[in-house]
Amino acid sequence: MSREHKYQTKLSWVGAGQGATSSYNSYSREYTVEIAGKAPFRGTADPMFRGDPTLHNPEDLLVASLAACHMLTYLALAAREQILIEAYEDTSSGTMILDGNGGRFQEVTLRPKVIVSKESDIGRATELHEKAHRDCFIANSVNFPVRHDPFVHTSFKASFKVP
Q1: What is this structure's pTM?
Q2: Residue 30: what pLDDT?
Q3: Which backbone phi and psi does 141 adopt, to 5 degrees?
Q4: ∠ CA(10), CA(16), CA(17), 5° rounding?
Q5: Is 153's pLDDT higher than 80?
Q6: Which among 60, 73, 100, 101 would be 20 to 30 A from 120, CA to CA?
Q7: Does residue 95 have a pLDDT over 70?
Q8: Residue 9: C-alpha distances to residues 23, 32, 42, 68, 154 (Å)
C-alpha cells in the first residue's frame, strides 16, 4: 500500500528589480522561496554562476536535504530500537561536475558523528546508518551515490576527541 505526500512551494525571482536578463553578467540571481505556514528564505545561484555567496544556493540545499533526511530517519530508527542518541552532527559534502552534458552531482558524502548513551549500543548504532540510508526518501530519489562515513561514540570517548 503506497501513501502519497504532496509538497508545494512558491519560488519568485526577486532580482528582476535590478534589471532584465539582457546579458549573462547583468541580472541578479536572487530568489525567494515561500512554503505555506513557514518562514520564507532567500536564495541565489552558486557563486561560480554569479550568485551571492551569503545566500543559500540549490546545490547547498540538496546536500543539506540529504543530510537532514538521513539524520531524521536515523533518529526515528534509533528511537524504535531504543538506542539513546545524545547528540548528532553531520559535516556533509557534495561533488558536482560540469562537462559537455551540462552539470550533475557526482556524489554526496555524509559524515555523521553520533553520541550514544551506552557503549554497548555503539555497534548497533553504527549499523543503523545503513538502514537509515535505505529508508531515506531523499537518498532514494537521487541518481548519484550517497556515501556514509559515520562515527559513533559515547560521551566519555567524545571528551577525548577520538577520531
Answers
A1: 0.89
A2: 93
A3: -105, -5
A4: 115
A5: yes
A6: 73
A7: yes
A8: 28, 10, 13, 19, 40
Amino acid at 73: T
Residue 115 has pLDDT above 70, yes or no: yes
Q: Print the SS3 string covering the chain.
A: CCCCCCCCCEEEECHHHHCCCCCCCCCCCCEEEECCCCCCEEECCCHHHCCCCCCECHHHHHHHHHHHHHHHHHHHHHHHCCCCEEEEEECCEEEEEEECCEEEEEEEEECEEEEECCHHHHHHHHHHHHHHHHHCCCHHHCCCCEEECCEEEEHHHHCCCCC
Is residue 114 a contact partner of residue 150, using CB atoms and an 8 Å limit? yes
Q: How many residues does the chain have?
A: 163
CATH 3.30.300.20 placement within the chain = 58-158
Residue 3 identity: R
The average pLDDT across 51-80 equals 97
Q: What is the CATH number of domain 58-158?
A: 3.30.300.20
Angstrom distance (rounded) from CA 128 to CA 71? 11
